[in-house]
Amino acid sequence: MRVMAAAVLTMESLLMGFALLLAKDSASSAQLWLGITLAISLLMCAGLLKRKGGYLLGSILQIFLISYGLVIWHMYYMGGLFALLWITAIGLGRRGEAIKASLIAKQQGDLKNRP
User: Cβ(79)–Cβ(62) under 8 Å?
Assistant: First the structure.
């Protein structure tokens, strides 16, 4: 789960960098600094996914990414797309971890039943 979520956050950081290139001519300096802070926060959050709070922070950053659409309207769509990827990464990651745990439990049960 962590690898997929970290990949989504890293790609969002790159997306934010490209959005900043689009916004450099029309946005104010405060809006640009907000975008830079968001891009750096997304990268740092990818490293914080070892803890449960990292996923909460990542979910909050999804809202900020979508709301950057106030500066560049394309970010509404791209932020929404990446928010769906974020939800999918968490859902598939949980399912994969459950399957992995059941396989490990089955293997350990098979080892105990051997003579």
Answer: yes
d(Cα 70, Cα 112) in Å, to the nearest integer? 60
pTM over 0.70: yes
Segment 5-31, tens digit of pLDDT: 999 999 999 999 999 999 999 999 999
Handedness of CA 46, 48, 101, 111 (dihedral sign): positive
pLDDT in tens, 88-114: 999 998 898 889 888 888 888 776 766
The continuous run of DSSP H or E covering 5 comes out as helix 2-23
Going by C-alpha positions, the residue among 27, 16, 12, 26 that lies closest to residue 82 is: 12
Angle between helices 52-67 and 74-112 (to 10 degrees): 160
Token pair 């560049």 in the structure block, residue: 72
Rounded Cα gap, residues 112 and 67, in angstroms: 54
